[in-house]
Every structure is written in structure tokens, then in C-alpha cells.
Amino acid sequence: MNGAWWPQDDGLIARELSPLIEELSGRIGTVREVSLNWKAGSPRSSMRSVAMPVHLTSRPFHWVITLRGERRTVRMLLVPARTHRMLATMVMRLAAQMPIIESPKEDEVAAALRIVMAA
């Protein structure tokens, strides 16, 4: 996983996809292919949803967007639009292999508590 993407409108994801492609093109070359294993209207439009089908609740479920450029392929975790801001931020930081602790004064226990409260 090369990072994460958090579109803000799950109904019109294509509108936000174009700027993402444009931004990444400078790093991976002209984007030749985009694949997305998620669709708008999915019953799981947030990372925490009561609409999640029972048969899917016991297994890991991830949405991934893959962009194939001339020079490189990038795979990013797609954070659903309606995910709580704090939880989305934590997920994106972890996907980008960044620390979840926001300041040197905050310890791991406080960071974990923030994640639990966001979920």
C-alpha cells in the first residue's frame, strides 16, 4: 500500500478522481489505467456502518484504488467519504506509514484513545 485517499463525496467520486490523477501523474507518469474495487451506493459507505451485511462483518474488508502510470503503479487504501474525520486521518497516516501520534507530547495511549473514540 502506497498511501490512502479520502474522497469527500461518495456520490460523485469521479469529480474528485481527476485531480488525484493529475497530482499523481507528476510522480508516476501519465496514468494509463485506474481500477477501483468500490462503488458509490455500497452498503458500506463509511468505515463504521450499521448497513454492513452480516456475512461481511467477520472478515476484513478494504477498498483499494490502483493507478497504473508510465513509470510506476500506486495502490492506495480508499477511505469512504462518510468516515469520521479523526478515524479517516488515522487510517490515512497508517497507510502512509506515518506515526499516529500528532505531537511529541502525546503518548501512544492517548493516540489509541483518540482512535477508539473516533470509531
Key traits:
119 residues, alpha+beta, four-stranded mixed beta sheet, 3 helices, 32% helix
Summarize the amount of helix as a percent range: 25-40%
- State the end-to-end distance: 22 Å
Number of helical runs?
3
> What low-confidence regions span 5 or more consecutive residues with pLDDT below 50?
48-53
Q: What do the pLDDT scores average to?
A: 76
Structural class: alpha+beta
- Report the count of strand segments: 4
With strands numbered from the N-terminus, the spatial order across the biggest sheet is 1-4-3-2
* Number of domain units: 1
Order of helices and strands: EHEEEHH
Which of globular, elongated, flat, extended, rod-shaped describes the shape? globular
Our estimate of the beta-strand percent is: 15-25%
Radius of gyration, CA atoms, in whole angstroms = 16 Å
| Biggest sheet character | 4 strands, mixed
InterPro entries: DUF5994
How do the strands and helices of this protein lay out in sequence?
Elements: E1 3-5, H1 13-28, E2 31-36, E3 64-69, E4 73-78, H2 85-95, H3 108-118
